[in-house]
Amino acid sequence: MIQVKNLSKHYPDKVALDDISVDFPAEETTAIVGPSGSGKSTLLQALNLLERPDQGILTIDDISLDLAKPLTSSQILQIRQKTAMVFQEKALFTHLNVMKNLTEGPIKVQKKSKQEAEAKAQALLEQFDMTELANRYPYQLSGGQQQRVAILRALAMEPKYLLLDEPTSALDPELEAQVLRVLKDLAKKDVSMIIVTHNMAFAEQVADQIIFVDNGSIGYAGPTDGFFHSKEARIKQFLGAMSF
């Protein structure tokens, strides 16, 4: 489980996170939703310390850090070894083909053998029916294919928790559907995922838990069904604004 307690992040002109406490269970899918600029991505990126909160306690499994204190490189590495991040931008290595994109991290960072890394990469490509992409370069892929490869690259590092920051926001609806199908398959396999998403239909279908972030605070944290059937005026207003 990932747990944050009393997490705060202030910028000179804005409070991004205001004393947030929330849990992210392992082997479940948590969707973080909320209006633009509400603090969703800040919360997600705080979980692997890409964003450094001003204060709060971050606990991932058996590791617990007081974020008000200076952190060592070793402590930050411990957190990041348990997580992998997928961003809106695919950010693949443009000079490497798909297979090498998937094996670069395991070989260079985790010191796995080329044979072991390639076997893992091949298994992932086969699992998601993407073997035909192995020798292609990013410029030869559609946006949806690039984002699916970015997800597999994160999975190749075998993280305990997969963090995704609006992974389909830059894609058209057809390509978005391709990526969402991959995430839906992962959710069925009980992969621990935390996803910032604007796609309410996807969140309702796939998420075990919804975290609603509004003006840097938690407006709801609980089962998906409870969120989508909430009688709270602010949640009803938000969901109404997301429908057309």
Automatic annotation (TrEMBL):
The GO terms this record gives for MF are: ATP binding
Question: Which InterPro entries did the record assign?
Answer: AAA+_ATPase, ABC_ATPase_HisP-typ, ABC_transporter-like_ATP-bd, ABC_transporter-like_CS, MetN_ABC_transporter-like, P-loop_NTPase
Any keyword Repeat? no
Kindly indicate whether the keyword Coiled coil belongs to this entry.
yes
Q: What does the record list as coiled-coil region(s)?
A: 107-134
List locations, semicolon-separated: Cell membrane
SMART domains attached to this UniProt entry: AAA
Q: How does it sit in the membrane?
A: Peripheral membrane protein
According to its UniProt record, where is this protein mainly located?
A: membrane
| Positions of the ABC transporter domain | 2-240
Keyword tags:
ATP-binding, Cell membrane, Coiled coil, Membrane, Nucleotide-binding, Transport
Q: Which PROSITE patterns match?
A: ABC_TRANSPORTER_1 (PS00211), ABC_TRANSPORTER_2 (PS50893)
Write the protein's name. Amino acid ABC transporter ATP-binding protein
Organism of origin is: Fructobacillus papyrifericola
